[in-house]
Write a structure and sequence with these properties.
Its EC number is 3.5.3.11. By secondary structure, the chain is an alpha/beta fold. The chain has nine helices and ten strands. A hairpin with a 4-residue loop joins strand 2 and strand 3. It is globular, with a radius of gyration of 17 Å.
């Protein structure tokens, strides 16, 4: 299914109009209803697509070209504004359809809560799933100000569903004391850094289905100021790209991915959607087997 956003011509660079033969499907989740600081990530998916026109179709990292890939851009899901419960149900239903059709779901957010129904559906299909979470924030709260549907809760929900030892967190540098304690006791937890610890755990992930969720705020605000909850002390875009390339290695079976929390209004330079767009290109060329 293609939604209005894609019909208007706003599609990721070099995407094909052929859904049936596509290996991957890009879809937007324009939701920022539960954010605790700055809204605006609902506009992320559209802007990531728009700036993709500035990308080269060739990746010199992977020696691959988008002309060699088969992917379809469905546009943004028409989520009901202000109704997070219904929006999450719609996301889950759509992703279930993609998985039933054998597609690689590649989601664009939106706040990080949108990843929760995606992870849930992917886990239903792959019960031995491993989750790789790259983020500045732990997202391990049970609730935020009494609300369990919050952008600070999706990884806690995933850990309780999948078992914490199937969750791998990298780059975390912000959270409550309880979140950090929970992570250390229940999750494969690698705070502050991304690439080096990721490379160390890749052998134990070999052969397993893996879902990758990237919150753009894992990057230092100097590299990605356009996000709702910027957090000082982050990694560089070079390191984040290298992490994606590490997952492109032999034996790693990534079955879906998302890039979330791009809020373009806070970045007039547009470096945040630009780096997100490049991440999407590298995911398509490196992770969609």
């Amino acid at each position: 299914m293609r939604f209005d956003d894609a019909y208007s011509g706003n599609v990721f660079i070099a995407s094909s109009p052929d859904y049936e033969n596509a290996k991957a499907v890009i879809y937007g989740m324009p939701m920022d209803y539960t954010v605790s600081f700055r809204p605006g990530s609902r506009f992320g998916p559209s802007r990531i697509r728009e700036v993709s026109i500035g990308l080269e179709e060739y990746s010199p990292y992977l020696d691959k070209d988008l002309s060699e890939a088969r992917y379809f851009d469905a546009g943004d899901l028409p989520l009901p504004f202000g109704n997070p419960g219904r929006a999450l149900d719609m996301i889950g239903d759509y992703v279930k359809g993609l998985l039933d059709d054998g597609k690689f779901p590649l989601g664009l957010g939106g706040e990080h809560l949108v990843s929760w129904p995606v992870i849930r559906e992917v886990y239903k299909k792959y019960p031995d799933l491993a989750l790789i979470h790259i983020d500045a924030h732990a997202d391990l709260r049970e609730q935020y100000e009494g609300e369990p549907l919050s952008h600070s809760t999706p990884i806690r929900k995933a850990a309780e569903l999948m078992g914490g030892r199937n969750v791998y967190q990298f780059g975390i540098r912000s959270g409550t004391r309880e979140e950090f304690r929970y992570a250390r006791e229940n999750i494969n937890f690698y705070p502050f850094d991304v690439l080096e610890p990721l490379q160390k755990v890749l052998p134990e992930l070999a052969g397993r289905p893996v879902y990758l969720t990237i919150d753009i705020d894992v990057l230092d605000p100097s590299a990605a100021p356009g996000t709702g909850t910027a957090e000082a002390g982050g990694i560089t875009s070079k390191e984040l790209l290298a992490a994606v390339h590490a997952l492109a290695g032999e034996g790693i079976h990534v079955v879906g991915a998302d890039v979330v929390e791009v809020a373009p209004v806070y970045d007039p330079s547009e470096q945040t959607p630009i780096v997100a767009s490049k991440l999407v290109r590298e995911i398509i060329l490196g992770l969609v087997k």
